[in-house]
Structures are given as structure tokens and as C-alpha cells.
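re the bet — no i am not wrong, look at it urself. input seq straight from the record:
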Amino acid sequence: MLFGCQSTQYPKDYEQLGEDERIVIRFSHVVGEDTPKGLAARKFAQLVKDRSNGYVEVQVFPNGFLYKDGEEMEALLQGDVQMIAPATSKVTELIPEWSVIDLPFAFNSYEEVHKYIASPVGKGLSSKFDNHGLLMLGMWDNGFKQISNRDHPILKPADLHNLKIRIMPSEILEKQFISLGAIPQKIDFNTVFTHLEKSDIDGQENTLSNITSKNLHYHQNYLTISDHGYLGYLLLMNKEFWDKLPQSIQILIKDTLKEVSEWEMEQAKKTNGEKLAELEDCQCIDIYRLSDEEKQAWEKDFKPIYDYFTVKYGEKYIKALPKYKE
């Protein structure tokens, strides 16, 4: 999904830029290069370079090379990097209303998420970045989250009782797991493997592409295909930097992001499907799929989380969700 893209043709005045005016965009992210986001970032960088005849260089820094999970946003706000693509959960400390995306079983497909973001409520969420000196240029998909642990199969909410589960920093995610008797642990993504290896935590929630890219399943015995929450990334750019770009470069970036975003969604679907097949073939972890009836039991237990969100942030965000629309 991309915002503000109105043209597929862009003027070529960027060709008049001198070598000393070359534009560099430092793009930091924390996941692996072989994940949907990692692949999309690399594709975006190459296309921008080609289409600008080398005058615009997007330097991609994956795997938290420059900044860790909790450092990226501050680096963007300070202008130390120009672009990041954090998970929606990681922007909730800045804009808490974005935690609506973290609500359990709120969406059933990528398309439902993008339709929500394109709605008036979603556009209102996107515009909130303006007050923080940021510009949201779009959204990339990762997939739907699954739950893994080392102790026992997780088929019903009570199975999470007393398990230490790694989560991303989000109040709603924290309350979800606390409500089920689990002990949520906010841990940097690139250190999860070590914490699992040392048995500091029992399990974690993430997409299949993220789980396999960091080999988290090496220290887990059970995986539940729950699809209980969506994980996507917001394409954010420093607004002051953006405003200084020539209009033709802005159009070039928007056009390229539109193309890459459409490709990335299909890549996310494909990658997560392939990773599930790989895990099934390797027989290195026991895999369980929640049935529709089992999911309904989870949703019932999660109702207080929706009530809490409604009281704190207003019902308009809830009423716009697919499950509440007629």
C-alpha cells in the first residue's frame, strides 16, 4: 500500500544534478535480507538507483546493523537515517492508536489490512505521523503471527499459562498475553535466538518468515499455526529530509514504492507459505493448526482486550475493523 502517489510519469530534471548533489537515503531495518521486507528494501534501492541514473542511492542496512529495534525511531527523528520500516507495534509508543493493528484476530487477510489503512480511519492514523516530523509513504506486509514454545503444544488459551513469551513493544500485545496468564517479555528481535538458546524465555510469537530467517525454531519444540495477529511494516521517512527533495525525486520514490509494495505483498504470501512447507518437511518441530472452533475460543477470551482498547482510544478504530462492518 502506498499513499500520495498520483503520477506514473516523472520529469527528468534530476538528470541535471551534479555529482556533488547526489542524494543518499540511509534505510535501516532489523530483519534478515531474505525476508519479504529485506528483499523489498533491496529491490527498492536497486530500482531507485537505476531510474535516477545513479543520482539517488538508497543505502540499505539490514539485521539491525545500524540501530536496534528500540533505536531506529529516535535515529529517524534525529535525521541520522532518512528511512525506516518498523513493525506497526513499534510505533505505538509514539502513536498509541496504531495498536489497533495488534488486536488479536482483527484481520483475516492482507487485503483486509490494506483496506482498513485506506479507510478514513486508517488515513487518520497515517496522518498522525505529521505531528512528529515524519511522513508515512506506505505499508509492507510480513504476514500473520504464529506461536512457538519449547514446553508443550499450545492449542487453547490456558496452554500459555506461566510461559515467558517474547513480544514486540506494544501495550496491547502485552495485555493480550497477560490476560492468558503468560509472562510477556519485550526483547530486541535480533537477540531472541540467544534468549531461546539460554532458556531465558520459553517461546515467542512471529511470522514464519521471521522465525526461520533467524532460526528461532532451532530452540523450539512446538509451533502453533494460529494466525492470531497481523505483522506489517510502515514505510516512514524523515519529513524535513523529504521536503528538501526535488519534486521529481519525490515522484520517482513514490512511483517506485508503489511498484515494489505490490510485489512485496505477493512475496510475503509466497515466502510464508514456503517456510511452512520447509518446517513441515524438516520434521524439526511439531506443528499444530488451530481449527476455526479453536480460534473462536481464543477470540472469546480476548474480548476484554477489545473493550480496553475501546475505552482508552475510542470505538471508531474498532468499528472500522472488518469483523464489525456489515
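see?? The mean pLDDT is 93. told u. also Residues 13-97+104-142+232-273 form a domain with the D-Maltodextrin-Binding Protein; domain 2 fold (CATH 3.40.190.170). so pay up
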